[in-house]
Amino acid sequence: MERGWALPLLLCWRGRWILWLLPALAGGDAPTVSVPGAYEERTVTGVRGRAVELGCGPPGAAVVFWSFAGPPGAPEPPRAVAVAAGGRAALAPGAGALGRPSVRNGTLRLGRLRPAAQGRFLCQALRPERGRLRAAYAAVRLRVLVPVSKPAVRPAAAAVAEGAAAALRCAVREGSAPLRFSWRRHHPAEGHRGDDDDGDDDGGDDGATAGRGAALRLAPAARSHAGWYACTARNEVSSRSSAPAFLDVAYGPDAPVITAGGGEAQRALAAAEGAALVLRCRAASRPRCRYAWLRDGGRLQRGATLRLPRLAAAHAGTYACLARNPRLRTRARAALRLTVRPRPPVASYVAAPVAAVAGMALAAAAALLAARHVAHNRDQHPRLHALLFRT
Questions:
Q1: String of b and e for 235-258 (b: at least 16 CB within 10 Å)?
Q2: Region 99-128 average pLDDT
Q3: Which pLDDT band holds residue 223 (cuts at 50, 70, 90)?
Q4: Which string of b and e fits 141-150 if b means at least 16 CB within 10 Å?
Q5: Best exposed site among 53, 167, 176, 383 by fewest CB in 10 Å?
Q6: Which class does domain 152-250 fall in?
Q7: Where are the domains positioned within the chain?
Q8: pLDDT in tens, 257-266
Q9: What are the Cα distances from residue 384, in Å, to 72, 363, 367, 380?
């Protein structure tokens, strides 16, 4: 690349007009007043909103020119940014579009860096050497990185049926590429548990890594996939995490279980007439299923609990519990055969006690008669009299 002189910059400083020619590195002949100097190219990375410093050759330059050539391949010629001489600096109009520029000791500092500053900065430093001006040239390629914005999980709340495909997307408004994504999963919320959920999450530990990539796909979705999901987006500058979003996996109802009085599941039950009976029905489902009871095919009531406070012969029959998932509109049922044992006749309750009492009375009367006989015939039975009456 040849160094040329194509862009004149006219600056007014302390009431004097000075005409300098700024190198554009675009062809042409250099002035004969300068001694050819070093040429340097390098890359500097800055972050939007922060400060970055661009150096120009060795220190001690008498005059430093800075220009901006824009991104590679830009059709516009370089435009002036700043010139510094004698410890003072002047900024060209429009330089504020790059950030907050300032020059000190030949170094261009851009505060509150803007994305528009990404591109090539050209610098020429002139310093006197043995009565002549020696020039140093630099081309600085500035990369302006944008921190990643706070990501969001889309959709914010998703609901799928078990067995279907579920997809979550990590959306980022801005951030310099390349972006890297990761997903973490947490326990389901209390309010989203199914009837059979006792607080344990079968799908993994709290905060477990669930996947990588901008999209998380679960196909097919299982009930253990239900829970809170958060994504993290990273780039070279920063890393940020999203607020968690809940994935609800609807399932069931599974086969209902009928229990009597809190005992084990039963399919047949015998109870005495007049006894109280409580039947409960339970089925794993998300969301909570709705229950209905039937007897011999006829509807009895709604609800998971059926109470029969006093059994009668008419209560005997086949009881069925019907569980229905209101979201999926799926159903499941379980049945129980109830037999009511009749009561024994009243006489059977009375005969045994009466017979026992009668026997006791007869024995007592016989003992009394024997004692009277011994008392009146003391002389005939002295030993027996002494034993009974202890005389």
A1: bbbeebebebbbbbbbbbbbebbb
A2: 93
A3: very high
A4: bbebbbbbee
A5: 383
A6: mainly beta
A7: 5-145, 152-250, 257-341, 347-389
A8: 999 977 777 7
A9: 139, 19, 13, 9
pLDDT at 351: 57
| CATH classification for the domain delimited by 5-145, as one of 3.30.70.100, 3.75.10.10, 1.20.120.10, 2.60.40.10 | 2.60.40.10
Q: What angle do CA 353, 355, 357 make, to 5 degrees?
A: 70
pTM: 0.68
Q: 230-264: per-residue pLDDT in tens?
A: 999 999 999 999 999 999 999 999 999 999 977 77
Give the mean pLDDT of the chain: 82
How would you write the chain as a 3-class SS string? CCCCEEEEEEEEECCEEEEEEEECCCCCCCCCCEECCCEEEEEEEEECCCCEEECCCCCCCCEEEEEEEECCCCCCCCEEEEEEECCEEEECCCHHHHCEEEEECCEEEEECCCHHHCEEEEEEEEEEECCEEEEEEEEEEEEEECCCCCCEEECCEEEEECCCCEEEEEECCCCCCCCEEEEEEECCCHHHCCCCCCCCCCCCCCCEEEEECCEEEECCCCHHHCEEEEEEEECCCCEEECCCEEEEEEECCCCCEEEECCCCECCEEEEECCCCEEEEEECCCECCCEEEEEECCEEEEECCEEEECCCCHHHCEEEEEEEEECCCCEEEEEEEEEEEECCCCHHHHHHHHHHHHHHHHHHHHHHHHHHHHHHHCCCCCHHHHHHHHCC
Structure tokens at 149: 């914005």
- Quote the Cα angle for 14-16-18, to 5°: 115
Compute the C-alpha angle 27/28/34, nearest 5°.
Answer: 115
Q: Find the radius of gyration of the CA atoms of the chain.
A: 49
Q: What does each C-alpha distance from 49 to 117, 146, 187, 233, 314 come to in angstroms?
A: 11, 9, 38, 19, 83
Superfamily of domain 257-341: Immunoglobulins (2.60.40.10)
388: confidence class by pLDDT, cuts 50, 70, 90: low
